[in-house]
Amino acid sequence: KRLRNQGLILIKNFGKGPGTFMDIFLVETVKDLFTMQFFHQNLSGEETQKGHKTRHSTDTRLDTNAPSSSSSLEIFNKTTTTKEEGGGDPITEIKKSYPQIDPSWDNVQIPEALRQLNFGSGIIKQVQQLASITSEELQQSLDAFAFDITENNILKNKQIKRPTAYFMAILRKGHSYQPAENFQSDEDKAIEDQIKKREERARGLKERERRFFEAEFEIWLDELPESDKRNPRFMIMGSKYMGGLHRANLKEHFTKSVWPEIWINLQRNLKNLTNFGTNQGEMGDELN
Fold first, then answer.
1. Are 163 and 149 in contact (CB under 8 A)?
2. 3-state DSSP assignment of residue 48
3. How far from 7 is each of 4, 24, 25, 30, 71, CA to CA, in Å?
4. Residue 60, class by beta-carbon neighbours within 10 Å (0-12 exposed, 13-18 middle, 19+ buried)?
5. DSSP code of residue 254
6. How far is the C-alpha of 142 from the C-alpha of 155, rounded, in Å?
7. Residue 63 DSSP code
């Protein structure tokens, strides 16, 4: 009852009488604190199991800082009685017993591809306690691993059955996950998409210009006097009238001497048309 009143546990499905039961849940904050303590113990190198020493952590920086299970129990017992003694909120007191963590870790985002493989906030907390890489390096590692999974099929190629264990094994050695040569971040992909759109638009403009050029050439050629068509500059000796060579010479002349002015006039007319539409819109707004 004391734990429930202090907000440390939740009780649901409470029944009365013989044969009844109740569901007891730890609140999320307390569960997170126990997770942190459990991780400290796994890294401390001082814990034992059935009288035998467990493997030592490779990161000796945590050995002297990690709280023992007995000290954590003392912290918990002390803070659960703070309200009775007129103290502050027990959850706050427990949090004060742990070192403050860089708030940048709160900005780390787990990619969807990893969430589907049960990567959760626990991974971030573990890496925080490892203190082997920065939050930025963790984000880059998560993004790179997610890319390898979705684009490079790394789970199948390397027969990785436990992705979280594989990923954490790399980080526990003090290394970040190195991206593949073909890696692209979300920012890279967004830029690449914009480039492709611009290239597609440029190709469209070039194609429209080509079609317009061909149409204008045929119109110019149709309106060109016969005498000009048979000009010796275009009718090289031995060439067939309006044959391939003859038309090529005429088109070359059109391209160099006629087309530039047509294209400049077209651009000018389009600009005037756009300005006219803008002015008409402004006049309409004023009238309204």
1. yes
2. strand
3. 5, 12, 11, 10, 22
4. exposed
5. I
6. 15
7. T
CA–CA distance, 17 with 9 (Å, rounded to integer): 22
- d(CA 175, CA 133) in angstroms, rounded, equals 7
Alpha helices (H) in the chain, listed in sequence order: 2-5, 28-44, 69-79, 90-96, 112-115, 121-130, 135-151, 154-157, 163-172, 186-223, 226-229, 244-253, 259-287
Angle between helices 186-223 and 244-253 (to 10 degrees): 110
Q: What is the pLDDT of residues 229-288, one digit of tens each?
A: 988 888 877 778 889 899 999 999 999 999 999 999 988 888 877 665 555 555 455 545
CA distance 34 to 26: 10
Encoding tokens for residue 71? Answer: 């000290």
Q: How far apart are CA 124 and CA 136, in angstroms?
A: 11
Strand partners, 11: 24
Are 170 and 177 in contact by the 8 Å Cβ rule? The answer is yes
CA atoms within 13 A on the CB side of 254: 22
Question: 20-29, 92-101, 252-261 — which is least confidently predicted?
Answer: 92-101
- pTM above 0.85? no
Q: What is the DSSP string of 127-170?
A: HHHHTSS-HHHHHHHHHHHHHHHHHS-HHHHTT-S-HHHHHHHH
What lies within 8 Å, CB to CB, of 242 at 6+ separation is 229
